[in-house]
Amino acid sequence: GAVVSQHPSRVICKSGTSVKIECRSLDFQATTMFWYRQFPKQSLMLMATSNEGSKATYEQGVEKDKFLINHASLTLSTLTVTSAHPEDSSFYICSADTRQINEKLFFGSGTQLSVL
Amino acid sequence: AQSVSQHNHHVILSEAASLELGCNYSYGGTVNLFWYVQYPGQHLQLLLKYFSGDPLVKGIKGFEAEFIKSKFSFNLRKPSVQWSDTAEYFCAVTPYNTDKLIFGTGTRLQVFP
Q: What are B10-66's pLDDT values in tens digits?
């Protein structure tokens, strides 16, 4: 079946540094990728919708200059958390949508970000 | 291996039929449980969640789920489905002492008028 690879699975960084998270669709073309974050004991929150070749659409309250999303190809989307702070510590997960397999959504394995 | 299992990969129903989608997990200890839905062309949305308390949880759009700890299950139910319920449904678990969300593989529901 289709696979979405997300890296890294865990990252610990110092406050003020930037962290890049990659989301790759390994055997299909993802026309749309979604980025979510989850705080402890809460449900997923959609951060942005990323379409290949165009600017991402951010949800209300999500800082686009803070969370840079690039969807440069049909198989890769990246989320960069710029100048990370402890409050950015969270679980980030991507999902990839394809119009080729009955519009099924596939999830990455997630990235646990801890900012010290 | 620890996992979240959704045994129904594809379910086809007629309108007004009752729905039950299975979800089983293999993590011990306290867990948080979720059901999400993705309608065609849309992003994931939360249907309902269980953290503690009453094991019968009611969500949006007439959905409910029951947490049965002894069976490690969190099945989703709806007494009477509608055509608009056609979507992909995902069960997810946050195991004890972790923030990681583990998804099942999803169940595609098709409801015909």
A: 999 999 999 999 999 998 888 889 999 988 777 778 899 898 899 999 999 999 999
Q: Which residues of A touch B46 (CB under 8 A)?
A: 43-44
Determine the longest span between alpha carbons in chain A, in angstroms: 42
H-run or E-run covering A94: strand A90-97
Q: Kindly tell me the burial class for residue A5, based on how many C-beta atoms sit within 10 Å of its own C-beta (0-12, 13-18, 19 or more).
A: middle
Each residue's pLDDT tens digit, B67-112: 999 999 999 999 999 999 999 999 998 877 665 678 888 899 999 9
Minimal CA separation from B79 to chain A, in Å: 25
Tokens coding A81: 């958390």
**Å from A103 to nearest chain B CA?**
7
Helix residue spans in B1-113 (DSSP H): none
Scan for tokens 């011990």, then name that residue: B28
How far is residue A21's CA from residue A36's CA, in Å, rounded to a whole number? Answer: 12
What secondary structure letter does DSSP report for A41? Answer: T
